[in-house]
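=== RUN LOG ===
request id: a7f3
mode: sequence -> structure
chains: 1
length: 346
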Amino acid sequence: MKDGYKKPWLNYEEQLGILIKRGLIVDDKSVALNYLKRIGYYRLSGYWFPFRKRLTKLDLKEKALKKSAITKSNNFASDEFIESSTFKNAVDLYVFDKRLRMLAMDALERIEISIRVDISYTLGKLSKFAYLESAFLHQEFTQIIDPKTGLTKHHKWLSKNSLLIMRSKEEFVRHNREKYGLPLPIWVACEVWDFGTLSTLFSGIRSEEQDQISIKYGINNGRVFASWLRSLNYLRNVCAHHGRLWNRNIVEQPKLPFENDTDWALFFKRNPQSQVRSYLLFVIMRQLLLYINPKSSWPSQVDELFNKFPDLSHLGLNLKGMGMIEEVNWNSLSMPNKITPKQSLH
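=== RESULT ===
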C-alpha cells in the first residue's frame, strides 16, 4: 500500500528558497517570485529539470546505502542543479516552448480544416452518409468487437459523432436538423468534428480512399498518413493543455514514409531517438503545409524561432533535445516534384 503524498504546501518564498538551496541561481528574487505566481512551480519544473545533475552509479550506490528514495520517476536526477544554472534559463526555455506550441497550433488548424474537406469530399462522392455505412469503411473498424466494451471502433466513433452534433450550437447544424432531420450529410457533420474524431474516421475508411487523400500530400501510403494524423492529434492535445513540447517524448509516434516519398525519412530511420521527439512532427507539418499553402510564412516563422532558441550551451542543451537532425535542415525541406500539389484554398 502506498504511503500517500507527504510533501507540505509551500508559499512562493519557500518554493524559491528550495530552488536557491539546491543551487539554482536567482539574479532577481522579485522577478522570480512573479513568475512562480503567474506560471507555477510545478509547470516551470519541467523546464529546469534538465538543469539538474545526473546521478552516477556511485551516487546511486551511496544513496541506496543511506536508504534514500530513488525512483524511476525522477529519472536518476539529483535534486541539485548543475553549476551556472539560472532561474532565467528556465523561463527563457518556457517562453521558447510557449511560442513553439503557438506555431504548432497555427499549423494544426490549417491541416485539420484541409483534411476535413478532403474526407468529406472523398466520402461524400460515394455517399452523403458514407460515415454511417460499413460498405465504405474497412472491416477492422466496423466488425472487430472490443471485448471490454462490446463495441466496435465504429460504434464508439458514432457515439462521439452523435455527441458532437447534439452539443453543437452552430446555426448550420440547427438549420439542417430542423429542415432535413438526422442524419446529417457528411459535408455538414464533418464541421463539428475535432481533430481526434477526424483522425479516427480516417483510420477507419477504406485503403483506396485513404490513398486518394494521402497522395495529395506526397505520401503514397494511406496507412502511414493515418499514423501521421494520430500523432498530430496527440500533438494538438499536448498544445491545447499547454504541455511541455520541445523535448517531450511523443507517445503516439508516426510511421515514417518510404524514402522515395520524402527526402528526409531515411535520416530519421537512422536516428531512433529523433523519432520520439517533436521535430519529426514539425517536419511532417511542414510537408503538409507545402501542399495546403505553398506560400505560407509558417516555415519561416518556425525557422526564426529555432534561431532564437535560448543559449543553454553551458548546460549542454540545444535543439537536438527536440530531435533536430543536422542532415534534415529545415530550410532545405521541399515538396517532392513528382506529386502535383492540391490547390490552396486558405
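=== NOTES ===
Confidence is low (pLDDT under 50) at residues 67-74, 337-346.
The chain has 15 helices and four strands.
=== END ===
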